[in-house]
Design brief:
Layout lengths: L1 H72 L1 H19 L3
Helix pairs in contact: 1-2
């Protein structure tokens, strides 16, 4: 009877080894799928970040144009704002 038990254990061991190898293969396959999904998501995030950067650039250019227009139309107001801002900043950063 010991031979029968030994044969059963060898069969169980072989079946366990085969199941472990199958699980490992599936794990590697899942890893590849996750890698592809992450790369696809990264491409989407990059495209979205680029779109936001372009929107920010357009908004900055628009604000710059508005500031230039204001400075051309009201040079005295612009000079007054610059003087007051300089005075306030000098008071904030001066060492007393």
């Amino acid at each position: 009877m010991p031979t029968n038990t030994s044969k059963t254990r060898k069969d169980e061991l072989a079946a366990s080894k085969e199941a472990a190898l199958e699980a490992y293969d599936k794990l590697l396959e899942a890893k590849d799928h996750f890698k592809l999904a992450a790369e696809a998501a990264g491409v989407d995030l990059t495209a979205e970040a680029t779109e936001q950067l372009l929107k920010g650039r357009a908004k900055t250019e628009k604000l710059g144009e508005q500031a230039s227009t204001f400075m051309r139309e009201k040079p005295l107001s612009t000079l007054g704002i610059a003087v007051i801002t300089g005075f306030v900043l000098s008071q904030l950063f001066s060492r007393k």
